[in-house]
Fold:
Amino acid sequence: MKTYTQKFLFSFFLLLLSLWAVSPLAKAEGGHGDSEKFNPKDMIMHHVMDSYEWHILDYKDANGEEHPVSIPLPVILFTDGSLDIFMSSAFHHGKEQVIKGTNVYRMDEHGHIKEANGKKIIDLSITKNVASMLISAIILIWVFTSVAKAYVKQAGQAPKGAQNFFEMIIVFIRDEVVIPNIGEKHYKKYLPYLLTLFFFIWTNNLLGLVPGGANTSGNIAFTMTLALITFLVTNISGNKEYWGHIFWTPGVPKLLMIILAPIEFIGIFTKPFALMIRLFANITGGHIIILSLVSFAFIFKSITVGFAASAGVVVMMFLELFVAALQSYIFTLLTSLFIGMAIAEHEHEHAEHH
Amino acid sequence: MDLVTPGVGLIFWTALTFVVVLVILRRFAWKPILGALDEREKTIADSLAAAEKAKEEMAALNAQNQKLLQEAIAEREKILREAKAVADRFVNEAKEKAIEESNRIIASAQEAIRNEKQAAMTEVRNQVANLSLTIAEKLLKNELSNKNAQIELAKSFMNEIKAN
Structure:
């Protein structure tokens, strides 16, 4: 059973690697098939950024005209109090405008939706990143409710298969990440949040590595939201001592407090800000490195460079698989640490008397 | 730059998705999983404690058994000793009785022998007297002619007999 799972995972990753190596090639080829010069920056940005459709490939018809093939996704827009919902395919890949009542929507050259009369749009579309995230949500719910069922079904027995694999990670997060930082007394309250956080980030990191996948966890809006949740959880949990430490650090001369208090106050925001930047930069950076390696083949137009670049991509893919787990671990670890700091019950009274 | 400008839509969907996933997993995944893990850890801890306790109880029981065995052995020895004493006493008593009985039998036998001897003596004396009388009668018949001599003779016999 175990070896079967391992074999399956191994072949799955091999498949991922080979597809990864091929998928951007196909895209890049399509991109510079005509006389235009291959532009690695555009190719890379196209892959790293969010979009309204899930782009798969481009092909050229008999007339040499290029046709993108993509899965259309729903566009949801609030404009002047009216809600407009339509499929992204209505834009015909940005070539046409969409008219809904009095609102005229156009897609600019950067792929953003603009209202022709300059009306303010609140854009809640199911973009590629959102779609990928919803898939991750379905995977998470499916996997972990199945694992939970296994516990109910064979209560009191040794875990097996996927249950064993996930138990290992869950116990690791609980015993090595959450309990040491938050403490035995309060950890149970935060464990569900931290487990969800870890697996949510990890799943989205891995989905980002799937060929043709979205760079969800490398999007600043995604990391910002998770950092914001950490910020809220930390500060709402913060006890008297936590706030006391920030605005009136014990044992510090009053004059120094004038400098120290603002620094400590800013510290509240810099901690989650660092979380946001770290995850964003690591994931997006990894994607850019892989895409850059792929670009070499098209810049130098050489098979030799292509093979060398592919070898580099394989190495980077393994590194990225590691980074995917590492970054979700670090995000969870630091969030536990911040919560632990916010709810810690120190004994300052003793220190102050010295 | 686009790359570092967070989009409102993705913020909204991320927050919503994360919270929904959190709520669902908390209720339907983490609760049973963490509960089962806690339960299992508790069971293991309890089992270890129970095993330790059983071991201690076993040791205590062993010690108790050993003690009981020692007591039983001591008891057995005591009973055997007592039984032997009783048996010895019985034997001794029997011996004494036997000796007494035999002494009594011997004494009564001696008594009987003495009586028999007395009777035999009397018998012999009677016989002797009778014989003497018969002899005397015959002598008398013969010596009747010589009366004096006969008397003398008879006297001398009688003296002899007396002397015996």
Q: What stands out?
A: Chain B is about 95% helix and 0% strand. Chain B has one domain: 2-163. Chain B touches chain A through 34 residues (CB under 8 Å).
